[in-house]
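About this split. The held-out portion is used to measure sequence recovery: a designer receives only the structure tokens and must propose an amino acid at every position. Recovery is the fraction of positions where the proposal matches the reference. Here is one held-out target exactly as it appears in the evaluation file.
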């Protein structure tokens, strides 16, 4: 019988086969890898492999068996559980949180400047829940809590951490400071501007008395018990760390109270010694302070607490400091 060579022999995968070997057939039942090498029936001499090729044949048979086991195991194995990505809620005041507010709370104000922006923001923030002056005590213990000591509050001007329980009207205690002086518009402590947490802060009784109802400006003599604070006869300068806080509180009040809800129309101006008029100065200095001291974590948290737990309105200049310049 004339021999021919299987097409696989060139790769060294099988021996010389007789002419009646079907060299055109390459398919075989799974999991056979090489038909001519592994499908020879036991004891069949018509398709002998050379001595040199038998170890390769045994190896291929073993690989075929292993492939069958793996295929069976894979078929029986349960489907893999898809991985899950946990997305945390954005932190208060973060870019993600502000973007979410822009899509909802501030949507009607976006793209506006000047009087149009001021009017849009007024419409947004005038919808608030009002609290009583008595309720302000407990609210300040939350809004101004010392991040390093939950039993204390941080006093605005002095910067001192003081026990929450040491509130009152005596020397050494802290009381409720109206950053927009209540006499500037004569709204007193009535529910409304007199109890609006966005401009009420805890402060040492003595330091609060020194500030009194003065407008804000640079310069003066050092204030005892309040490092970095200065005052003269008609103005007060807070410490650097809260200059921006003070500016944004004053400008919040100017947007929130526009004279359309039985309260005075509060406005910033370039004067000091405004007396009882519904105005606070000095606007150019306040704008500079807002740039100098951008919102920090403490101020952002405070804004969020007031919004979510008390008044349901926000100080827009904490979320968008650039709106100060856009309006004024």
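Reference sequence for scoring:
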């Amino acid at each position: 019988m004339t021999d021919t060579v299987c097409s696989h022999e060139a790769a060294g995968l099988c021996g010389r086969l007789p002419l009646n070997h079907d060299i055109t057939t390459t398919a075989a039942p799974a999991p056979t890898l090489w038909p001519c090498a592994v499908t020879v029936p036991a004891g069949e001499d018509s398709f002998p492999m050379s001595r040199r090729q038998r170890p390769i044949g045994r190896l291929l048979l073993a690989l075929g068996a292993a492939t069958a086991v793996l295929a069976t195991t894979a078929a029986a194995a349960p489907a893999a559980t898809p991985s899950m990505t946990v997305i945390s809620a954005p932190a208060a005041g973060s870019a993600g949180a502000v973007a979410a507010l822009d899509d909802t709370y501030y949507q009607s104000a976006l793209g506006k400047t000047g009087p149009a922006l001021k009017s849009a923001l007024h419409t947004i923030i005038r919808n608030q829940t009002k609290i009583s002056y008595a309720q302000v005590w407990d609210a300040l213990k939350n809004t101004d809590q010392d991040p390093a000591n939950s039993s204390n509050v941080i006093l605005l001007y002095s910067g001192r951490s003081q026990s929450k329980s040491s509130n009152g009207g005596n020397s050494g205690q802290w009381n409720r400071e109206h950053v927009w002086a209540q006499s500037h518009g004569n709204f007193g402590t009535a529910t409304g501007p007199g109890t609006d947490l966005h401009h009420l802060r805890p402060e040492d009784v003595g330091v609060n008395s020194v500030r009194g109802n003065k407008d804000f400006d640079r310069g003066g003599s050092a204030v005892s018990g309040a490092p970095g604070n200065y005052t003269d006869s008609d103005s007060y300068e807070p410490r650097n760390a809260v200059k921006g806080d003070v500016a944004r509180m004053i400008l919040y009040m100017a947007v929130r109270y526009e004279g359309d809800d039985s309260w005075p129309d509060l406005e910033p101006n370039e004067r000091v010694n405004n007396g009882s008029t519904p105005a606070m100065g000095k606007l150019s200095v306040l704008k500079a302070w807002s740039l100098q001291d951008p919102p920090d974590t403490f101020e952002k948290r405070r804004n969020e607490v007031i919004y979510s737990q008390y008044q349901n309105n926000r100080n827009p200049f904490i979320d968008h400091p650039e709106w100060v310049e856009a309006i004024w």
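Annotator remark: The first strand starts at residue 3 and ends at 4.
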